[in-house]
Every structure is written in structure tokens, then in C-alpha cells.
């Protein structure tokens, strides 16, 4: 029995019965392998087709279609009245009321204590001064600092003014 293809139309529903018919038809209509090339016919007989001809020139562009209506004009055509500004405002709709303000939230938990800063460098001060006198006058000395280093002191007399 020869396969009868389904003539599909827009809106047709694909059913399992129609798909099964297609599957069965495809199974029965399998094409076998190609046969051997036949011999060339005698002169004057209808032979193989010649080469394809050149492609024809492209056709001219069609005329431009009419411009469509604006949304505002379509709105007017539907029986509405008003200016274009009123139309645009109608698209946006009215502004809604502001929502109620919420209650103030509870305070957050206390944060962790920060890392302690580094101690600053210790200052150096004078721990003791030892003075030397010559002929009853202070002429030199040694200062012992709080870091236990020492510094020599030289004493000079200020000239009288």
C-alpha cells in the first residue's frame, strides 16, 4: 500500500495517530542504494542536461509603505479626547500615596572592643646631674639620663653687659 502524505493546514493539531502514520510511511518508503551509471545514448537522442544558465538580474525595490499612526492618534481614533500631554500623563497613571513610616528599630548590640594601640616610645629625661667646680666656679658636669646614658655638660660664663 502506497503512503498517502497528510495535507497539513494552519491550525491542524498534531496527534499521535498522525505521527504514527508518518513514521510507518517513512519506514515503507525507504530509498535503496543508488544504481550504477547508465551507458551514453546514441547521437541525436535526448542526452544529459546542459549547464545551468546565468542568474537573472534582481528586481526593483517596491514602493515604501504608508507611515503608521502614532499611539496618540490611535488613542484619539478610539474616541478619547485631550492633548498629547494629557495622553502621555494618562499612560503614566496617577501617583500613588506614600506608605506609612515604620517604627524606629532597636539599638544594635555593642561592638567588640578594638585592638589596643602600640605603646609610644619612652621619653628621655634627666635622672641626675654631677657638677665640677674650678676655683669655686662651676665649669663642667655630667648628666645621667633616664635611659642610663650620660652626656657631658660644659658651663661657660656669660659676659657682663
TrEMBL record:
From the UniProt record, which GO molecular function terms apply?
extracellular matrix structural constituent conferring tensile strength
Which residue ranges does the record annotate as region Disordered?
Answer: 25-69, 94-119
Annotated Low complexity bias: 37-69, 110-119
Native source species:
Loigolactobacillus rennini DSM 20253
Which Gene Ontology terms of cellular component type are present? extracellular matrix; extracellular space
Upper lineage: Bacteria, Bacillati, Bacillota, Bacilli, Lactobacillales
Q: What is this protein called?
A: Collagen-like protein
Which InterPro entries is this protein grouped with?
Collagen_superfamily
Q: Quote the biased-composition stretches of kind Basic and acidic residues, using this chain's numbering.
A: 94-109
One GO BP annotation is:
extracellular matrix organization
Amino acid at each position: 500500500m502506497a503512503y498517502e502524505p497528510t495535507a497539513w493546514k494552519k491550525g491542524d493539531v498534531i496527534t499521535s495517530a498522525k505521527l504514527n502514520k508518518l513514521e510507518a510511511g517513512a519506514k515503507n518508503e525507504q530509498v535503496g542504494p543508488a544504481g550504477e551509471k547508465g551507458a551514453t545514448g546514441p547521437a541525436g537522442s535526448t542526452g544529459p542536461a546542459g549547464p545551468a544558465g546565468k542568474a537573472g538580474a534582481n528586481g526593483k525595490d517596491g514602493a515604501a509603505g504608508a507611515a503608521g499612526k502614532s499611539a496618540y492618534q490611535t488613542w484619539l481614533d478610539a474616541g478619547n479626547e485631550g492633548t498629547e500631554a494629557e495622553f502621555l500623563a494618562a499612560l503614566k497613571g496617577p501617583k500613588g500615596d506614600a506608605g506609612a513610616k515604620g517604627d524606629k528599630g532597636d539599638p544594635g548590640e555593642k561592638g567588640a572592643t578594638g585592638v589596643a594601640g602600640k605603646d609610644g616610645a619612652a621619653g628621655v629625661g634627666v635622672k641626675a646631674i654631677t657638677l665640677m667646680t674650678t676655683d669655686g666656679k662651676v665649669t663642667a658636669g655630667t648628666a645621667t639620663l633616664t635611659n642610663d646614658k650620660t652626656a657631658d655638660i660644659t658651663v661657660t660664663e656669660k659676659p657682663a653687659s
